[in-house]
Amino acid sequence: MMQVEQDQITYAFLGPVGTFTEAALARYAPGASRQAMPDVVSALEAVRTGAVDRAIVPMENSVEGGVAATLDTLASGAPLVVVAEVLVEISFVLAARPGTALADVRSVATHPHAWAQCRRTMSELVPGAVHVPATSTAAAGAALAGEGAAPAGGSAPGEAGLAFQAALVAPHTAADYGLEVLADGVEDNPGAVTRFVVVARPGVVPERTGADKTTLLVHLPHNASGALVTMLEQFATRGVNLSRIESRPIGDALGRYAFSMDAEGHIDDARVAAALIGLHRVCPHVVFLGSYPRADRTPTHVPPGMRDEDFEAARAWVRGLRG
Ligand SMILES: O=C(O)C(=O)Cc1ccccc1
């Protein structure tokens, strides 16, 4: 989609101002109108209700894996589709109110994925400090600064004996909330990347670029031996590579899982369409969650015999057999 069009639509994002999600949106649609949401579920629901046109939410990161709230909210409810992905390199600072020393820090507020990415460094820097979960990194920073709601279990900012003395936030966010940086570069894995997705109501499928991904959610047949292999064969026999596959509980019974995955290619690629047709035949539930350009623009490798022309030639050959 053209930059001009992107800038005319309203985006819900995981807020408040200063989250990594906001940074991802600034990269994707710099001048667009935006609406901060308190969590991933409300950002996606705002698209479903029509309150906004699009939402941008974290989907996956290179250290902690899939973001359950995003995967699960996309999996059920009114249909939504991914129309773009944005990759952001993530680095964290440990921030506190002015005058706080490292030795004062007994609890650290932040988003669970941020804590997971800094756990080892925190155990060295502030030994014994516990994590206080927040809805986002910036929400933790705002609460510490005395703006916005406190994270779960946190006492109101400004009260004597704050339940958390520091927050893990994005480097540019500490100063915006009037906080001081106690330590920077506190992530355990330098170079960690988070993948954000732009989500819309169904209707528009971005044009095929030759470097695309297709996101799907699939249920397997009940108690069928080899069901997982049968599902995977639909991709393998059409030369479609999966760049992500993970299981999420369906929620109706113990041991029932849905598979969330990204296939390399676009629904307009004959091999991807053939894989989808195959999935529909062998799986009880298949949800198409969008075809969109890869953020890294790496062209999809198409194995011999799997190009659109190969499928068309094969179909023509079968037609010819009857004639
Ligand atoms: O909390 C944020 O700032 C977010 O945007 C979610 C998040 C948290 C940790 C790593 C990447 C994204």
Q: Any overview of this molecule?
A:
With 323 residues, the chain is of the alpha/beta class. It has helices spanning 3-7, 20-28, 40-49, 68-75, 112-125, 137-145, 173-176, 227-236, 270-282, 308-322, and strands at residues 10-14, 33-37, 54-61, 65-66, 81-89, 93-96, 107-110, 130-133, 166-169, 180-184, 193-200, 212-219, 242-249, 257-264, 285-293. It folds into 3 domains: 1-90 and 187-203, Periplasmic binding protein-like II (D-Maltodextrin-Binding Protein, domain 2, 3-Layer(aba) Sandwich), CATH 3.40.190.10; 93-170, D-Maltodextrin-Binding Protein, domain 2 (3-Layer(aba) Sandwich); 205-323, 2-Layer Sandwich (Alpha-Beta Plaits), CATH 3.30.70.260. Helix content is 30%, strand content 28%. The strands form 3 sheets. Strands 1, 2, 3, 4, 5 and 11 form a 6-stranded mixed sheet that branches. Strands 8-7-9-6-10 form a 5-stranded mixed sheet, with helices on both faces. Strand 7, helix 5 and strand 8 (130-133) form a beta-alpha-beta unit. The longest helix has 15 residues, at 308-322. Mean pLDDT is 92; it is low at 156-160. 3-phenylpyruvic acid binds at residues 14, 19-21, 58, 61, 90, 111, 113-114, 136-138, 194. The site of 3-phenylpyruvic acid has 14 residues, from helix 2, strand 3, helix 5 and helix 6.
Cofactors, ions, other ligands: 3-phenylpyruvic acid
> End-to-end distance, in Å?
43 Å
How many E-type strands? 15
Task: State the secondary-structure class.
Answer: alpha/beta
The CATH superfamily of the largest domain bears the name ACT domain
Number of domains: 3
Top-tier CATH class of the largest domain = Alpha Beta
Strand proportion, as a percent range, falls in: 25-35%
As for the CATH topology of the largest domain, it is Alpha-Beta Plaits
Largest sheet report: 6 strands, mixed
Helix content: 25-40%
List low-confidence stretches: 156-160
Per the principal axes of the C-alpha atoms, what is the gross shape? elongated
Run of helices and strands:
HEHEHEEHEEEHEHEHEEEHEEHEH
Annotation field: number of helices = 10
CATH architecture of the largest domain: 2-Layer Sandwich
Global Rg:
22 Å
Mean pLDDT: 92
